[in-house]
Amino acid sequence: MVEYGVALFHSPSHALRAEAVLQRAGLGVKMIPTPRQISSDCGLALRFERGQEERIAALLAEKQVPIKGWHTIQARGPARALTNIADRTGNDD
Predict the structure, then answer these.
(1) Among 10, 16, 67, 74, which residue carries the largest CB count within 10 Å?
(2) What 3-state DSSP class applies to 58?
(3) Which residues pair with 70 in a beta bridge?
(4) CA separation (Å) from 11 to 3, 19, 39?
(5) Quick one: 46 exposed, middle or buried, by C-beta within 10 A (0-12, 13-18, 19+)?
(6) Which DSSP category does 26 fall into?
(7) Quick one: pLDDT at residue 77?
(8) Predicted pLDDT at 86
Protein backbone atom coordinates (compact mmCIF):
# COMPACT_ATOMS: atom_id res chain seq x y z
CA MET A 1 0.00 0.00 0.00
CA VAL A 2 1.19 3.50 -0.85
CA GLU A 3 0.09 6.43 1.31
CA TYR A 4 0.63 10.09 0.53
CA GLY A 5 -0.83 13.49 1.33
CA VAL A 6 -2.60 15.87 -1.03
CA ALA A 7 -2.96 19.61 -0.46
CA LEU A 8 -5.85 21.40 -2.19
CA PHE A 9 -5.97 25.03 -3.24
CA HIS A 10 -8.60 27.56 -4.24
CA SER A 11 -7.06 28.35 -7.62
CA PRO A 12 -4.40 27.13 -10.03
CA SER A 13 -2.31 30.22 -9.26
CA HIS A 14 -2.26 29.30 -5.54
CA ALA A 15 -1.25 25.72 -6.41
CA LEU A 16 1.57 26.90 -8.69
CA ARG A 17 2.80 29.41 -6.12
CA ALA A 18 2.72 26.76 -3.38
CA GLU A 19 4.73 24.38 -5.56
CA ALA A 20 7.40 27.02 -6.14
CA VAL A 21 7.60 27.95 -2.42
CA LEU A 22 7.88 24.34 -1.28
CA GLN A 23 10.40 23.31 -3.93
CA ARG A 24 12.61 26.30 -3.03
CA ALA A 25 12.47 25.05 0.58
CA GLY A 26 13.71 21.64 -0.58
CA LEU A 27 10.49 19.69 -0.08
CA GLY A 28 9.69 16.91 -2.51
CA VAL A 29 6.24 17.89 -3.73
CA LYS A 30 4.63 17.01 -7.03
CA MET A 31 1.83 18.82 -8.88
CA ILE A 32 -1.00 16.43 -9.73
CA PRO A 33 -4.53 16.75 -11.08
CA THR A 34 -6.93 17.01 -8.15
CA PRO A 35 -8.57 13.62 -7.70
CA ARG A 36 -12.24 13.97 -8.70
CA GLN A 37 -13.31 12.19 -5.53
CA ILE A 38 -11.89 15.07 -3.50
CA SER A 39 -12.86 18.22 -5.39
CA SER A 40 -13.53 19.64 -8.82
CA ASP A 41 -12.77 23.27 -7.95
CA CYS A 42 -9.17 24.09 -8.82
CA GLY A 43 -8.02 21.11 -10.85
CA LEU A 44 -4.49 21.12 -9.40
CA ALA A 45 -3.22 19.71 -6.11
CA LEU A 46 0.16 19.01 -4.53
CA ARG A 47 1.19 15.50 -3.59
CA PHE A 48 3.64 15.12 -0.69
CA GLU A 49 4.99 12.59 1.78
CA ARG A 50 2.77 12.15 4.83
CA GLY A 51 4.12 13.81 7.95
CA GLN A 52 5.10 17.04 6.18
CA GLU A 53 1.79 18.82 6.74
CA GLU A 54 3.01 21.04 9.58
CA ARG A 55 6.09 22.19 7.68
CA ILE A 56 4.11 22.77 4.48
CA ALA A 57 1.44 24.72 6.38
CA ALA A 58 4.06 26.92 8.07
CA LEU A 59 5.93 27.68 4.84
CA LEU A 60 2.75 28.51 2.93
CA ALA A 61 1.37 30.63 5.76
CA GLU A 62 4.63 32.58 5.84
CA LYS A 63 4.25 33.29 2.10
CA GLN A 64 0.49 33.90 2.42
CA VAL A 65 -0.53 31.04 0.13
CA PRO A 66 -3.99 29.84 1.24
CA ILE A 67 -4.65 26.10 1.51
CA LYS A 68 -8.16 24.81 0.87
CA GLY A 69 -7.75 21.39 2.48
CA TRP A 70 -5.66 18.31 3.23
CA HIS A 71 -6.32 14.68 2.35
CA THR A 72 -4.56 11.36 2.67
CA ILE A 73 -4.71 8.91 -0.20
CA GLN A 74 -4.06 5.23 0.39
CA ALA A 75 -3.51 3.40 -2.89
CA ARG A 76 -3.68 -0.35 -3.33
CA GLY A 77 -3.29 -1.07 -7.02
CA PRO A 78 -6.06 0.75 -8.88
CA ALA A 79 -8.15 1.22 -5.69
CA ARG A 80 -7.75 4.41 -3.68
CA ALA A 81 -9.10 5.29 -0.25
CA LEU A 82 -9.39 8.99 0.61
CA THR A 83 -9.29 10.47 4.10
CA ASN A 84 -9.80 14.11 4.99
CA ILE A 85 -7.01 15.22 7.33
CA ALA A 86 -8.16 17.37 10.25
CA ASP A 87 -7.21 20.98 9.63
CA ARG A 88 -4.27 21.73 11.91
CA THR A 89 -3.44 25.06 10.33
CA GLY A 90 -6.61 27.03 11.06
CA ASN A 91 -6.65 27.76 7.34
CA ASP A 92 -9.91 26.22 6.16
CA ASP A 93 -11.31 28.93 3.90
Answers:
(1) 67
(2) helix
(3) 7
(4) 25, 13, 12
(5) buried
(6) T
(7) 67
(8) 46
- pLDDT value, residue 36: 79
SS3 75: strand
- Give this prediction's pTM: 0.78
Calpha distance 25→34 (Å, rounded) = 23
Cα 91–chain centre separation: 13
Contact 49, 85 (CB under 8 A): no
Are the C-beta atoms of 11 and 42 separated by less than 8 Å?
A: yes
Q: Domain ranges in the chain?
A: 2-84
CB 6 within 8 A of CB 71: yes
| Per-residue pLDDT reduced to its tens digit, 17-29 | 999 999 999 999 9
Q: What is the fold, at CATH topology level, of the domain defined by 2-84?
A: Alpha-Beta Plaits (3.30.70)
Residue 82 has what pLDDT? 52
- Burial class of residue 78 in the structure, from the number of CB atoms within 10 Å of its CB (0-12 exposed, 13-18 middle, 19+ buried): exposed
